[in-house]
Amino acid sequence: MNIIQCVELSKSFGRRQALQRVTCAIDAEKIIGIIGLNGAGKSTLLNIFAGYLKPTTGSCKVFNENPFNNIQTAANMIFIDDQLSFSEYLSLEDILKMGADFYPNWQNELAYRMLDYAGIDLTAKHQQLSKGQLATFNLVYGLVSRCALTILDEPMNGMDEVIRTDFYRAILKEYLAFPRTFLITSHHLQEMESILEEILLIDEGSVIAHAPLDEFKEQLISLSGPSDELADLLSETEVYAQKIVAGMTSAVVGASKLFVSEEILRTKGIKVSTLTASEVCMYLTNKKGRDIDAIFD
Amino acid sequence: MIVTTIFFFTSILLVIAIFQILSKLGKKTKRIWTPKRIMIGITSYIILGLTAFIYISFFSDSKIPVLSSSDIKQVEKKFDQIPKYDQEFNSSYLTSDYKKKTWEINFDGDTLPVVINNDDNNLSLNIRQRYNDNIESGKALITYYQFPFIVNGVDLSDEVPLPDVYVAQNQLFIESFSKQQVNYNRLKATIGFLDFNRGAERYEMDNSYSNFIVIDIPRGTEIEDSQGLIYYLE
Amino acid sequence: MHVHLDGTTPIYIQIAEWLQHEIIADRLQADQKVYSQYQLAELFNINPATAGKGLTILLEEQLLYKKRGLGMFVTMDAKERILLKRRNEILTKMAQEIVLEAKRLLVSDEELLVLIRKTQEGLE
Amino acid sequence: MQSLTNISLKTIVKKQVKWEAKLNISALSSLVIVQIIFGVLTSSSGSASSGHGHGNLDVRFSIYSLDTFLIVSAIWAFIVALLFTTKAYRVDDLSVISSRTSSTIANIFVMIMYSFIAVIIMISTYYLQVLGILLVEKKSFVTEGLFISPSTFILCFSSICLFGALGLLFGTSFKGPVVIKIFLSTFMVFSFIYIFMTPNIIPLMMLPNLMISVLCLLVATLCFCLTIWIANKSEVSRK
Which of C44, C45, C49 sits opposite A197 (nearest CB)? Predict the structure, then answer.
């Protein structure tokens, strides 16, 4: 059952086209990673889902209702990013009380345990927390609210390494305890990869890929071997990146068009290896022919 | 109107300025002033206001009655006839309960020169002369009558300063004391601006005939009225 | 339990192989209930869907069978099938690599056979 | 699939009002301070004075009425309403279940509540001022209507409400940095009132208190509805 449907959704701020004709459908109860460079339109898309922005053209349905200024979608959704702010009069404990008052599925004891684990003093004020503590508190706030749609916009930035891995597990455990739809944007894709089910890749305002994680990763493979062997092969398939060093070529190609079986490749001495999701993302969004080495040659 | 406009705009600037200061202050004292404490502060302020009200309305002693416009009309109805009586030289309106003060003077001869010193025109007196049979010759009786003097609904007859009456070189002098200043605080829990613009609800009484000086002289004596201000009464 | 995320083999395949390993090591007997996808997700700190994919691979290879509403169970001959598969698939692939490597290192066939026999004796 | 919670707008607005009224209480404390300052300022001469000279008696009445306090409360309500619509306050609503409609309606209710309390504070300040004068100079007190008549109470309440509504309306329609917003809209509203209203405000004054109150409340409700309509249309920028 689709929780979010966008049809030809585009959004422009003045002349800047933030989103160009995005069409995607997000299923319920999945953890989905929304990946894209800064300024690719991730936040704009999330803001439209959250009902804060109106699409310029096209439509967007959340819980098959128009989310803009809609109290029903707001009641089943929470948007956590670094802009989350509370009144200066509220200590963290008051904030939790307020959350409990608003969100029907609120889990207060869980919040206390999580914050205690992260070593955050509940009497502190939200504005006094360090960047890492702030990110932690906001994430806990998002998790314990247990909304059917939980949007986490770069929940981990500011947290140090140890806490990050703990809280990835916390997200997974919370997902298992109360299945819901997570939309998580992050720069640490490789850390987060294991808990994701699907990836939505956005570049320059349009959705480039939206697929389950493994399918997404198997899109591209990297071939490395003697240049002459590879030359004819590369001409048939779509090459995403290529580097020729002393007679050896290593290239990233689209796996779908490759008809040659692995045995033949191996006999030709061509090594085949899969790529990590973040590498796939990088190559997919990499502007064709942009290559850092070119700067040094 | 100018005053109100200046007042209007200065109060805007003042309120905005105070707001800026408060918000700066607020930031520092955020920890102390929690919503609960502020609430207590506000409720105690209101209770304080309530007690002030109770104190004022029950315990404040200086109570000066205020006449409503209907009372004033009644008072005025009573004193409309004064000018009529005056023209008919009839002094019946000068009843004793308005008598404020009487002076008894002696003088020689059968003419009494009267000098009214009104150069700083503070006197709005109506001076009358009357023959009185049971005064021996060489004596005169000067009485000062003060009728209600209503301003803004307040009867100030007690406040009107008495004139200064004395005899010197066988002449009767009537002078007024220096101008007297009276301050009143009028308390009205309404929007004064509205009342003002709705026209004085209170009917302002015409106070020109509010006080009289009557000089009683025995028959056969004459008043030398060089200034021509004294009229004759029965 | 650790799943290596360096992208060499997809996680769901690693899960499938781990489960097969469990069956061979008799920690999962025949007709015994197998971990659910949620338990696997918790165990390996991965998304339940990925764990589910691993289970479906074993299901397609008839190593597990599904009882409605109860979950997945190990089939009777699961262990033998895994051993057989491993023998002819994985062993043959390894053999191929050895032969290729030998050719590159210009090792003749006889020397190769002698080497294999010597390693077998060494193991006894 | 987890069953979706459906919460009515009413419950959300109620919750938001409960929290916002508590959290923005500092606005009321600043009103108290502003009122005290103006109370002290006008305690010497009262909000107006009238002098009558008659013969050798010069009478000066310093009138202590609610004028200053009403003007101050009106301006205060206007500014507070403006502050409610600034980004700093609006963004706080986004951390809980809210929509533009619910936040605006909540702001309106809080504004109405604060206007009511503001009238009470105004009256308390007036009586405290009178008490202060009484203690300072014993004599010459002309107390006419010390107990505030209901019609005056309602009149004060509706005019403060009106200015609050204007504040909310201007706040919602202008987007921009706070300080400029405050000065711009305050100046515009009050010069508007001064230029257009003053000449024909006189006949308006002739109406009895209740009529004026009804008028104020009508205009206020109009502003409230306009505010809600504008808010519903406006987008929220989280950055």
Answer: C49
- Cβ <8 Å between A31 and C41: no
- Cα angle vertex A84, ends A5, D183, to 5°? 110
pLDDT of residue A219: 84
Between chains, do A88 and B30 touch, taking CB under 8 Å as contact?
A: yes
Select from A191, A187, A182 the least CA-distant residue to A157: A187
Q: Give per-residue pLDDT as tens, C59-100.
A: 998 888 988 888 899 888 888 888 888 888 877 888 888 888
Residue D171's closest CA among D81, D100, D73? D81
Tell whether D236 lies on the interface with A, counting CB pairs under 8 A.
yes
**Rounded to whole angstroms, what are the CA distances from D25 to A131, C13, D17?**
29, 60, 12
Residue B111 β-bridge partners: B222
Tokens linked to A57: 């053209």
Q: What is the pLDDT of residue B7?
A: 67
Coil, strand or helix: which one is A3? strand
Distances from the Cα of D94 to the Cαs of A76, C62, D5, in angstroms?
A: 13, 52, 18
CA distance A283 to A51: 32
Instruction: Give which of A35, A50, A44 is closest to A13, Cα–Cα.
Output: A44
Tell me the pTM: 0.84
| C-alpha R_g of chain D | 21
Position A104 pLDDT exceeds 70: yes
CA distance C3 to chain A (A): 9
Spatial distance between the Cα atoms of A77 and A146, rounded to a whole number of angstroms: 9
The per-residue pLDDT of chain D, averaged, comes to 85
Phi-psi region at A246: left, alpha or beta (left = phi > 0; alpha = psi -120 to 50):
left
Q: What is the rounded CA–CA span in Å between residue D86 and residue B30?
A: 19
Helices (H) and strands (E) in chain A, counts: 12, 13
What token pair was written down for B29? Answer: 């004292």
Instruction: List the single residue in D2, D24, D99 with the smallest CB-CB distance to A70.
Output: D99
Strand B139-146 relative to strand B211-217, pairing: antiparallel
What is the C-alpha to C-alpha distance for residues D183 and B166, in angstroms, rounded to an integer? Answer: 67
Q: How far is C20 from chain A (nearest CA, A)?
A: 20
Q: Is the pLDDT assigned to residue A175 strictly greater than 90?
A: yes
For the record, the structure tokens of D218 come out as 């009508």
Is C40 in the A-facing interface, judged by CB distances under 8 Å?
A: no
pLDDT digits (tens, 9 = 90+) for D103-154: 999 999 999 999 999 999 999 999 999 888 888 876 677 777 778 888 899 9
Q: What span, in angstroms and rounded, lies between the C-alpha atoms of D61 and D41?
A: 17
Question: What is d(CA D58, CA B176) in angstroms, rounded to the nearest whole number?
Answer: 14
C-alpha pair distances (Å), A276 with each of A289, B52, D45: 21, 77, 81
Do A274 and C7 make contact, defined as CB atoms within 8 angstroms? yes
Pick from A178, A214, A215, A268 the residue to mutate for testing the C interface (most C CBs within 10 Å).
A214
Q: How far is residue C72's CA from residue C82's CA, in Å, rounded to a whole number?
A: 17
Q: Are C20 and C54 in contact (CB under 8 A)?
A: no
A252's CB contacts (< 8 A; 6+ apart) are A220, A221, A222, A223, A239, A240, A241, A242, A275, A283
Contacts of C49 (CB under 8 A, 6+ apart): A30, A197, A212, C37
| B130/D31 Cα distance (integer angstroms) | 66
ipTM reported for the complex, 2 dp: 0.81
Neighbours of chain B (3+ CB pairs under 8 A): A, D
Nearest by Cα to D170 from D124, D119, D230:
D230
Q: Report pLDDT digits (tens) over C14-56.
A: 899 899 988 888 888 888 889 999 999 988 888 999 999 999 9
Residue pLDDT, tens place only, B116-142:
777 666 666 677 788 888 888 888 888
